[in-house]
């Protein structure tokens, strides 16, 4: 038996609020999802006027960031034709989103959950996810 | 062309907070989802210690309540063997949850979204969804 | 943030060995799966001459027993026509197995994983899963 | 009528143990799956701290290595844009993993099953799968 740590609902809602604040600052409405250490959805918000098709993508980015303990931005490079993980997006019933916007949340070196953001360019999604993760880490 | 009305993210988060308050009052942790008038997920929260298998169910109940503009409790009766809609749970890629806990949100006679709750018995789920919907309607 | 406990791979292999021993004793070859506290597969074994169609079912029973913190035997009753959870087998992309053979593994009152068994009648599956869970609990 | 040969559960568990030993030697925790000559899962183990997203991938690599009687490393080249099998990862419900880490197990020239490994780089996955297959062949 092992003892592990995970985000809880309070953490998840805090991370989403931090993401919404960043998205409002830049003017790009976003879908934001947070999963726990087991990859299970804890909380989600779709900002008004953001893309409907991004619900699934935001959740998939959060899931992938925890499933492989990596930023999906890094996964994107590994999943290009010719790279190590080309084809990974077909695994796990299509849940592995391989573009920027998914960021693991850590406590020290341990991944305790992840945030996924979708609604703009890869750079925009990534910057909102990063801002939320970093503001959460600062406490 | 038509003008329609829908819940927005603020409404969805308010409904979820009302649902959480009711679930805390009764001591049964719940998964709570809110969809807009288009049936698209607006917000979601999984309370600590609630069932992991209820993420999909809460979202499915909210979706079904809007998809058919009916409480899923009523849908349950219609979906029994021998009844009119027997088999409906196999439609729409399995998104039609046919047990109690999905409640449409209305403005006057118009459905503007729905809430779905999962985490306990049908009666418990239904009472949290109803309480949230009614408290929201009172404003 | 929360601290939780989960089965590890060693535990999972022990539980499978206990299940195999029980299945050999009764002469019914089985598929046996163990998931961790997050519902994620830890270990699996398909005994020689057991059903190929039971791979997915054993994994689904283990998943369901953790997803709803309940023996799937109890879930079976709740999922009958007219009962509270009728239709639940259509949720979660068909992963919710609603017949006997899935048993949560607990540490005190906390569910830390689950075992799922498939290969015979509901009674046979259940008795192997129960035997493995109880032998594991005795340590 | 034909007589065929296949790995059995004992073989599969031996191969997994050999893979775990190699993974422990190199310090990269892995997911390891073994399928029989029919492509059906025989045994699986997810080592502690290995990726959750690799459960499906390890199983998919083992399946693909038997489905096409080829190392998935070789399949990767054939599945690149412009190559003969481009698009193959979309077939078979997404089960065809097209990156390194799946290795057929042979008796003489006959494929009798396969092992799939996932948890690190392509090179790491491949080397664990190869080590396990070769140690098993040596007996």
Give a brief description.
Helices cover 40% and strands 23% of the residues of chain A. With 139 residues, the first copy, chain A, is of the alpha+beta class. The mean pLDDT of chain A is 97.
What is the domain total for the residues of chain A?
A: 1
| Spatial sequence of strands, sheet with the most strands of chain A | 3-2-5-4
Secondary structural class of chain A: alpha+beta
- Can you name the CATH architecture of chain A? 2-Layer Sandwich
Largest interface, chains and sizes: A-D, 22 and 23 residues
User: Using DSSP, what is the number of strands of chain A?
Assistant: 5
**Beginning-to-end CA distance, first to last residue of chain A:** 30 Å
Topology-level CATH name of chain A: Beta-Lactamase
Indicate the percent of residues in helices of chain A: 40-55%
- Helix segment count of chain A? 4
How many whole angstroms does the radius of gyration of chain A measure?
Answer: 14 Å
The CATH superfamily of chain A is identified as Haem-degrading domain
Strand content of chain A: 15-25%
Q: What quaternary form is this?
A: homotetramer
CATH C-level label of chain A:
Alpha Beta
Biggest sheet features of chain A? 4 strands, antiparallel
Mean pLDDT across every amino acid position of chain A? 97
